Backbone:
């Protein structure tokens, strides 16, 4: 695909950097001596700075959500199907900001950044970050960009949790929150899967207690296993049956040969490529942030009391075959929003693709998301 | 605006908290939001209707009425509305009870199966009534619990549901003197406003 010729692509984009030089206190009690966030923007900020949308990424995502960095790129950003001219998150209407979370490994300050106090990479000593810390750091970015109030903060999965935290912590700074395939906190089953992934990484001899980079090695095998188990939880039973069935990649069972199923080679490929592009310490940090997320815990374990802090309208979207963050988790959010008398709409989208559905261009999903954002755009255009 | 929805809108006080069960394309809630500063939610399961509601800025929740309303707290709404949906739910009696648990009052509308045209259809042609009033054939109708006004009022009496007001209209949603005299014969649709029995 030629990125520049496509009318529905944001085209070639360049990441930008935001540098915060002040001391930045974290929820864990430690402080970062300043930080950097890498981000991308698509579309134009209007005169009143009222048309900005913040995109929050999920566990392994990054700031490159749409478009291409170079005309030779084979693949666009991770949410290119949804962001662009005429797409549900319409860059003709909105100024879209997509940021790599603090603690990430794609350019924002994280374990691979030099700790100015030691002169070496933070590695495993990078402080624990939480969803609240992400919101606080993104608020500073919003100040830098001159955005007093986002039209919407949008995220899927862990990104949806960030959008929820935004609504609770900074109610005056957003008009709407869109929570897709998300949850108000992880279930024991979710935490269990994250722990399997963490054990796979830390048990890899090449992990070296998190100091693998100093020793010029990488826990490839551990990252690969972590990704493989994660990937299975992002798909559905039906979806995997349709995609792979029991197709063989090689060998013949009837001849007594060793065989490889398609699904095995697919998972190994996904795992291997992940181990090459993702930092192990970041993976541990991000999964911990997921596990600890629980906004109700600040309000006597009442989610509706937590959400009573919010002022924005909500759109909550879930998918029928998602078992990682099931539709029932989204319903908990919706019910709490109704109890706290917030404006909310919700849709449960029929899809066979499990948790991964939130990344896919499913027609009804895009109608709901696009319709909600379009209505929001009309409402603040009328207000201006 | 649809005539029946205009009748319901008149029964709702400004600023009321409204829950609309089976809110369709959100016409009633959108009208109430704009004209009566009503803060409400609609429950709906049809994807096209849900999208239309979202486009209108209506708080629509995708939820099946047959799965119950346990997620709504007692007395959390001023008015719970259900427009021409009673006859297509699995357990109308339990749903009515739930509506008055959640709302101070409720408004229910439904078609009258004892309407004279229905009676004539069945008596003279010997076939299930199909008309503008009840437009479906027996094999594709969503209406699994059709009743008459008399049936409904008997249920209200049995369940101690207090009928605060009621009125019946013809198939074109107009009131007529004849309907007031013989509602269960000449009335095509009924509007009931119910409250808890005051003892």
Residues:
């Amino acid at each position: 695909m030629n990125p520049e010729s496509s009318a529905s692509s944001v085209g070639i984009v360049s990441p930008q950097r935001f540098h915060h030089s002040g001391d930045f206190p974290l929820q864990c009690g430690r402080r970062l001596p300043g930080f950097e966030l890498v981000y991308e923007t698509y579309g134009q900020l209007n005169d009143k700075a009222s048309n900005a949308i913040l995109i929050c990424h999920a566990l392994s995502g990054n700031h490159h959500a749409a478009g291409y960095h170079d005309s030779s790129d084979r693949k666009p950003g991770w949410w290119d199907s949804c962001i662009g001219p005429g797409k549900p998150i319409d860059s003709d209407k909105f100024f879209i900001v997509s940021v790599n979370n603090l603690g990430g490994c794609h350019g924002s300050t994280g374990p691979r950044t030099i700790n100015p106090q030691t002169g070496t990479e933070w590695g495993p000593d990078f402080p624990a970050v939480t969803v609240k810390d992400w919101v606080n750091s993104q608020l500073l970015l919003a100040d830098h960009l001159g955005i007093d109030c986002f039209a919407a903060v949008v995220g899927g999965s862990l990104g949806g949790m960030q959008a929820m935290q935004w609504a609770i912590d900074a109610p005056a700074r957003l008009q709407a929150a869109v929570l897709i395939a998300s949850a108000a906190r992880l279930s024991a089953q979710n935490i269990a899967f994250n722990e399997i992934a963490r054990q796979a990484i830390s048990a890899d001899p090449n992990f070296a207690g998190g100091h693998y980079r100093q020793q010029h090695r990488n826990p490839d095998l551990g990252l690969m296993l972590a990704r493989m188990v994660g990937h299975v939880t992002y798909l559905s039973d039906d979806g995997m049956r349709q995609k792979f069935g029991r197709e063989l990649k090689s060998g013949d069972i009837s001849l007594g040969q060793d065989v490889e199923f398609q699904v095995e080679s697919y998972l190994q490929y996904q795992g291997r490529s992940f181990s090459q592009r993702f930092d192990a310490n970041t993976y541990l940090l991000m999964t911990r942030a997921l596990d600890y997320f629980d906004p109700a815990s600040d309000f006597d374990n009442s989610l509706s009391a937590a959400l009573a802090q919010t002022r924005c309208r909500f759109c909550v979207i879930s998918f029928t075959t998602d078992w990682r963050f099931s539709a029932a988790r989204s319903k908990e959010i919706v019910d709490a929003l109704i109890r706290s008398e917030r404006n909310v709409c919700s849709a449960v989208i029929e899809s066979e693709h499990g948790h991964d559905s939130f990344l896919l261009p499913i027609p009804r999903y895009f109608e709901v998301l696009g319709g909600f954002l379009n209505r929001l755009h009309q409402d603040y255009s009328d207000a201006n | 605006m649809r005539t029946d929805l205009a009748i319901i809108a008149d029964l709702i006080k400004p600023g009321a908290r409204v829950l609309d069960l089976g809110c369709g394309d959100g016409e009633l809630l959108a009208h109430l939001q704009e004209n009566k500063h009503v803060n409400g939610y609609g429950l709906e399961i049809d994807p096209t209707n849900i999208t239309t509601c979202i486009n209108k800025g209506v708080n629509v929740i995708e939820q099946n009425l047959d799965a119950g309303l346990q997620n709504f707290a007692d007395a959390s709404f001023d008015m719970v509305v259900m427009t021409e949906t009673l006859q297509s739910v699995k357990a109308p009696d339990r749903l009515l009870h739930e509506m008055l648990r959640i709302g101070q009052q409720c408004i229910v509308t439904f078609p009258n199966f004892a309407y004279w045209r229905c009676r004539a259809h069945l008596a003279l042609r010997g076939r299930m009534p199909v008309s503008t009033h009840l437009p479906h054939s027996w094999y594709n109708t969503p209406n699994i619990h059709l009743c008459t006004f008399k049936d409904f009022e008997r249920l209200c009496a049995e369940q101690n549901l207090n009928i605060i007001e009621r009125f019946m209209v013809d198939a074109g949603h107009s009131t007529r003197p004849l309907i007031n005299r013989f509602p269960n014969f000449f009335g095509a649709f009924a509007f009931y406003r119910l409250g808890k029995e005051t003892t």
Notes: The CA atoms of residues 60 and 88 of chain B lie 20 Å apart. Chain B touches chain A at residues 17, 39, 41, 47, 50-51, 53-63, 71-73, 76 (CB under 8 Å).
